[in-house]
């Protein structure tokens, strides 16, 4: 069995990178791993080509524990507790807390953006461009197609295996199942069951009750394993979890903003409570920022207003703050290619599922797209990192701003108003999800 995001030998390679980024001295551990025959290069797809023999796998487990025990420099600008973290944030903006109902546009935009990016997830930027040029669709302005794609290009850049059968223009029949939609649906259930005072343990128990283990990835897969191992929060986020500053928590956060229109601080707190099950530091900050984007998009008029409002929940000295600032600054460049070149030059060393490169792309796509749905999600996808996740977040923001009717029939018609899911209850109506979101927003306690 080729199990991704879980084999100790693969986790160790990623942990060497993550621990070094946190300031730990990993040289000795790395040297011992290489001397024993281990590969220190992290696999891009979640698992290396060959499983390690028992002795090497046992060593990987031991070295993971050694890395966890190494001292790391303190990060006083990025405290773990909510109260200490909130004290370091900028004052929240004075935004209206009510307005027209934008939930339908938000859900529709998130689904459409995710769907656009699904077939090319894991394909790098240059491969996406080659596919689009070969099929006469460069620059990207509609869903991908395999029609007319030369065999040699298809072989060089194969579609995402799971998504190719459901996410190309010629075979789309509603929004297919995706973790980027499973998590927002799950967040609705969480809030309906527990209200806004839910705890991180409530998130974990809901995962175990309803979320198939095979449909969680990276940090969420590690946290799921830690839950089953009866490890407490926040150890669920740190034990043998080198993905703790990747994008997983960010993709879970939109609903916390949609039910808190205009209240970016509350949205960030809800996202923080959820994120700490599986993430730390910038992994959590990314979730807070995404929730604030979603909250602001429910009441603001422009993407610049949304971005400004969301900036107030990002710790000023964090890596996430730098990534968002870089994305916004790149939007002032002469064209999209120049902007993406700048982001890849700065963040290209990171894994394609990391939070920082993808947050920079999200900020860039929103700022450069100027509130137009198609250009915004297309930029997020052609950037070539976590294509479906970045475009989903961008699509949710612009969809809320534009409304479902303002997204465009080209993008909305293939969705057929429904979202498939691997959660209990099966396929969901987008209109029903929006109605549930609106009900939760209407029932919130005013500050």
Automatic annotation (TrEMBL):
Coiled coil ranges: none
GO molecular function: hydrolase activity; metal ion binding
Keywords, ordered alphabetically: Hydrolase, Magnesium, Metal-binding
Signal sequence coordinates: none
The keyword Magnesium belongs to this UniProt entry's keyword annotation: yes
Protein name per the record: ADP-ribosylglycohydrolase
Binding-site list for Mg(2+): 386, 388-389
Annotated spans, Disordered: 71-98
Cofactor(s), names only, from the UniProt record: Mg(2+)
InterPro entries: Ribosyl_crysJ1 (IPR005502), Ribosyl_crysJ1_sf (IPR036705)
Entry's cofactor comment: Binds 2 magnesium ions per subunit.
Key word Ion transport present: no
